[in-house]
Write a structure and sequence with these properties.
By secondary structure, this protein is of the alpha/beta class. It is about 25% helix and about 25% strand. A hairpin with a 3-residue loop joins strand 8 and strand 9. The relative contact order is 0.14.
Length: about 280
């Protein structure tokens, strides 16, 4: 990781990103994050068309390179209350996006993080997504990017020191889905993404399969819904795909897995759901 004093220096960030490319795009690497955010800044500066992604789109990068532009391309531009369920937007680059600057944004996650952007008008709430404490029908929209796969599992490895969050309940995500639906206004939209593919439960996350997606949809009971699937290919990056074509996708867990040739950085496929209450 770069020292805090250098993290915000654009020249240092660009140099670090270039080093990542010159050293063979190795992951894990101290140069990975600067490269990732440089690429995110680039793709978020223009339109996102999932049907015509360029060759090598997001190559060497994790699933955020499709999840973030997918979300921003669908988020309404008008004002309203937005809940970030999982603190996936808590980065200056993302908070400066025009669609977020019009929103009354609340970020909810298990524990405080190093970066805090209260000066941008962001509200922070700490707690469990299965019991948020917000009143019914409060938010106009909700975003929950790559978060549900951690609910009910061991969150003490990366996210909190609270020993009560060392769990092993693989169905707990359904309680979170029902809670997100409760606090969403009628007609409001939830944007949810999860790793998708071959069913696999790790200590700290699980990969969703078609049955789990169906259970998620049943718990939310949307008035309208759309699903997009993206898959990573080692030689050509990320592309829009289908449920069937991503059903055997794997997840590379840097905490436990030995690297294999052509592995993704994290999820090999993701499911992106837009659900209207």
């Amino acid at each position: 990781m770069l020292p805090p004093s250098l993290k915000q220096n654009p020249l240092v960030q660009e140099l670090a990103a270039r080093i990542f490319t010159l050293t063979g795009h190795r992951y894990p690497s101290r140069w990975y994050t600067p490269y990732k955010f440089r690429e995110l800044k680039r793709v978020l500066s223009g339109p996102f068309d999932p049907y015509h992604l360029p060759a090598h789109y997001g190559q060497w990068l994790d699933e955020r390179i499709v999840e973030y532009p997918w979300f921003f391309s669908r988020l309404p531009a008008d004002a309203g209350r937005l809940l970030d369920a999982g603190s996936v937007l808590n980065f200056d680059l993302l908070l400066q996006q025009p669609k977020l600057r019009t929103k009354d944004l609340t970020i909810m996650t298990l524990a405080p993080e190093a970066d805090c952007f209260w000066h941008h008008g962001v509200s922070y709430v700490y707690g469990d997504l299965r019991e948020t404490g917000f009143r019914d029908d409060y938010f106009d929209s909700i975003v929950c990017i790559s978060t549900l796969e951690h609910v009910g599992l061991d969150n003490t490895l990366l996210y909190t020191k609270d020993a009560s969050k060392k769990e092993s309940d693989t169905t707990a995500y359904l309680a979170a889905v029902r809670e997100l639906r409760r606090v969403l206004k009628p007609g409001g939209t939830a944007f949810i993404t999860v790793p998708f593919g071959r069913r696999h439960v790790r200590s700290w996350l699980q990969v969703f399969d078609p049955e789990m997606l169906e259970n998620l949809l049943a718990a939310f009971a949307p008035q309208a819904s759309s699903l997009d699937y993206f898959r990573y290919h080692a030689v050509d990056g990320w592309h829009l795909t289908s449920r069937e074509a991503s059903g055997d996708a794997r997840y590379f867990d840097p905490l436990a897995d030995q690297p294999w040739p052509g592995r993704p950085v994290g999820a090999e496929a993701v499911a992106c759901l837009e659900l209207t209450k």
